[in-house]
């Protein structure tokens, strides 16, 4: 079962050609979310390797960081970025709960979504540039990737589904055991890769997730798949900025 849960997590959160037992994935639903941090760590690790190889051939740190960031986007199919854009458009573009959810479901991107995407890419690129300069991008991206996906599981468990339909609703909500396992796994990845940096990383990513949770609860009454994507983006930004600050 653990192997099939990991495959289900990779099939859901990435575009990697992983064979998935769809019957198992549908049966397990959100209870397979404990494996999301492993999927995130793999995405971060692969992205870092691309940047490290580029840097080994003399590529400047800012460009190596951009290549790593682009690799993340390709591997995930930009699903988290899409969630961030839809969240920004919906939460700030509508005047009531129904309209906000309608906007979030719309595939078109508005001003708020565009600004959120641009800021996300700039902040992650700037932080990664510092991390690449410090010489430890592999560990940093594994830590940020794993912890940010653990926060997605926590968000899904903490808030009810706001829409009653869609991907987040079909997957269900993780139980307490699954959530604690995901958070424990995410924390372990951070501890083993960054040591005592786990403390500030846990603090700032938790604050970012709580802030988004409070806004989502107030504006739409819970979480959606877009909110989960935004959770990943905001907590990864918080993690990378923390790591860059510690490395500077």
Write the layout of secondary structure elements.
Layout: H1 2-13, H2 22-28, H3 36-56, H4 61-76, H5 79-93, H6 97-105, H7 111-134, H8 137-158, H9 167-171, H10 176-194, H11 198-220, H12 225-247
Helix pairs in contact: 1-3, 3-4, 3-8, 3-10, 4-7, 5-6, 5-7, 5-12, 7-12, 8-10, 8-11, 8-12, 11-12
Description:
The protein has 248 residues and is mainly α. It is 79% helix and 0% strand. The chain has 12 helices and no strands. It has helices at residues 2-13, 22-28, 36-56, 61-76, 79-93, 97-105, 111-134, 137-158, 167-171, 176-194, 198-220, 225-247. α8 (137-158) runs antiparallel to α10 (176-194) and α8 packs antiparallel against α12. The chain is globular and about 50 Å long. It starts with a helix and ends with a helix. The model has no long low-confidence stretch (mean pLDDT 93).
Classify the beta-strand content into a percent band.
under 5%
Uncertain stretches of 5 or more adjacent residues: none
Q: Tell me the radius of gyration.
A: 17 Å
Q: Compute the average pLDDT.
A: 93
Basic shape: globular
Number of helices: 12
The span between the termini is: 42 Å
**Structural class determined from secondary elements:** mainly alpha
Quantity of strands, as a count: 0
In sequence order, what are the helices and strands, one letter per element? HHHHHHHHHHHH
| Main sheet characteristics | none
How helix-rich are the residues, as a percent range? over 70%
């Amino acid at each position: 079962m653990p192997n099939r849960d990991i495959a289900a997590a990779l099939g859901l959160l990435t575009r990697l050609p992983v064979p998935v037992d769809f019957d198992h994935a549908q049966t397990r639903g959100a209870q397979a979310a404990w494996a999301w941090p492993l999927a995130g760590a793999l995405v971060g690790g692969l992205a870092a390797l691309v940047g490290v190889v580029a840097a080994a051939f003399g590529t400047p740190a800012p460009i190596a960081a951009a290549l790593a960031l682009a690799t993340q986007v390709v591997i995930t199919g930009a699903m988290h970025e899409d969630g961030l854009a839809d969240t920004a458009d919906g939460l700030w573009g509508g005047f009531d709960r129904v309209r906000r959810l309608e906007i979030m479901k719309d595939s078109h991107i508005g001003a708020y979504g565009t600004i959120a995407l641009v800021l996300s890419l700039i902040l992650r690129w700037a932080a990664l540039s510092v991390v690449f300069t410090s010489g430890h991008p592999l560990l940093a991206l594994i830590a940020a990737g794993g912890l940010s996906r653990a926060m997605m599981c926590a968000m899904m468990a903490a808030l009810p589904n706001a829409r009653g339909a869609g991907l987040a609703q079909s997957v269900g909500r993780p139980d307490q055991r699954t959530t604690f396992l995901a958070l424990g796994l995410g924390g372990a990845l951070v501890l083993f890769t960054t040591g005592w940096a786990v403390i500030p990383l846990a603090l700032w990513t938790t604050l970012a997730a709580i802030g988004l949770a409070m806004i989502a609860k107030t504006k739409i009454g819970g979480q959606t798949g877009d909110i989960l994507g935004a959770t990943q983006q905001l907590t990864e930004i918080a993690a990378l900025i923390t790591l860059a600050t510690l490395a500077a």
